[in-house]
Amino acid sequence: MIRAEIITIGDEILYGQITDTNTQWISAELDKIGIRTVRKSSVGDTEEAILQIFQEATDRADLVIVTGGLGPTKDDITKKTFCKYFNTTLEVHQEALTDLTEFFRKRGREVTGLNLGQAELPANATYIKNTMGTAPGMWFEQNGVVYISMPGVPYEMKGLMTLSLLPKIQEYFKTPVIFHKVIRTVGIGESLLAEMIDAWEDALPPHIKLAYLPSMGSVKLRLTGFGEDIKALEKEVEDKFEKVLPIIKDYVYGFGNEELEEAIGRLLKEKGYTVSTAESCTGGYLGHQFTKVAGSSAYFMGGIISYDNAVKINQLGVKAETLAQFGAVSEETVIEMSENIRKLCQTTFGLATSGIAGPDGGTTDKPVGTIWIAIASETQTITKKLQLGGFREQNIHLTAINILNLLRTTWL
């Protein structure tokens, strides 16, 4: 097992001024080549803190990856701190200077002032060319540990990793063959899913590991195999999945990277069905789930965001008596919403949502998180009441997942 630690440097990360997306992306890429990330750390722009985290990482990792602190200004001290850690000095690296000069020449500029310092590297560093920026990557080796330093700008970091460093890491560490297979489920919680496949999981061989990857409203099952022969490994992992699929088939909506909205869109397109939406509490979020998928114009015809009762009545055609007697958050209202939007847009299905997303607006009879959803076809209308009770964004998101899954399990 090759162990990696990822360190981000910069006060702006600690202060919450920018979001650290680098460590998530790097650890995911390392996982693909069989390297396990054992720790992620963030430190500020102080030499003492950086030196301390370097030493701690050296004691527990085989690979230490550092992002940030490589700019030309005085607060970017990563290179100088590496010099102190390795007891060396900065020197102009001729290849780095040549590449830096060419980078600026293509943009009609000369390398001057602070930017010249970008070509200075610790004497013991192996230069890694950055084709997307001026701060080069660096590779160090000491006492069996590899240290990699990259700029913190995400697209520059990803370019360095993809083009140069991931292949170099694989070659250096002779990483094992690794194969992932992912099943995506919806409509079932992690613990219940684990109980259903307990016997199957216990029967897995030691070189095949199962991971549960829960997210809001869904759970991914990732089976990872380690070995030496990729074709044999793929077949073995596929065989294991064929045995578990019949157990959980009712909850499986897709595989790999396919999101629920993509799977729904694929099924709608295959069957030649169309949909429209009438939204209250979700405020357009349900429609967005359809339209964020490329090619959704083949099956999503449009919708009405009927947030106010006047819009429900005047635009959507919900009866005033229905709203007066039962309220906006009711089965009767979403039935009319779903049936009317289907007729207005002339679609196969009409989907409707109405509820109390929160954080206020709830009552004793209808607390926050009370949601009604409905789907109308030409022959029938089905409804479901949700009692979510979470935060506003969570309630909106889960409402969309529930109605998409209701569409999947009923008609698709």
Write the layout of secondary structure elements.
Blueprint lengths: L1 E8 L1 H4 L7 H11 L2 E9 L3 H14 L2 E5 L10 H9 L3 E3 L1 H12 L14 E3 L3 E3 L8 E6 L2 E6 L3 H20 L3 E10 L3 H7 L1 H5 L5 E8 L2 E10 L2 H19 L3 E4 L4 H12 L3 E5 L5 H7 L8 E6 L3 H6 L5 H7 L4 H15 L3 E7 L14 E7 L4 E7 L4 H20 L1
Parallel strand pairs: 1-2, 1-3, 3-8, 13-14, 13-15
Antiparallel strand pairs: 4-5, 6-7, 7-8, 9-11, 9-12, 10-11, 15-16, 16-17
Task: Describe the 3D structure.
The chain is α/β, with parallel strands linked by helices. The chain folds into three domains: 2-173, Molybdenum Cofactor Biosythetic Enzyme, Chain A; 177-255, Alpha-Beta Plaits (2-Layer Sandwich), CATH 3.30.70.2860; 260-411, Maf protein (Alpha-Beta Complex), CATH 3.90.950.20. Helix content is 41%, strand content 26%. The protein has helices at 11-14, 22-32, 47-60, 78-86, 94-105, 154-173, 190-196, 198-202, 230-248, 260-271, 285-291, 309-314, 320-326, 331-345, 392-411, and strands at 2-9, 35-43, 63-67, 90-92, 120-122, 126-128, 137-142, 145-150, 177-186, 208-215, 218-227, 252-255, 275-279, 300-305, 349-355, 370-376, 381-387. It has a six-stranded mixed β-sheet with strand order 2-1-3-8-7-6, with helices on both faces. Strands 14-13-15-16-17 form a five-stranded mixed β-sheet. A hairpin with a 2-residue loop joins strand 7 and strand 8. Helix 10 (260-271) packs parallel to helix 15. The two termini are 43 Å apart. Residues 5-172 form the MoaB/Mog domain. It comes from Arcicella rosea. Pfam families: CinA (PF02464), CinA_KH (PF18146), MoCF_biosynth (PF00994). One of its GO terms (molecular function) is hydrolase activity.
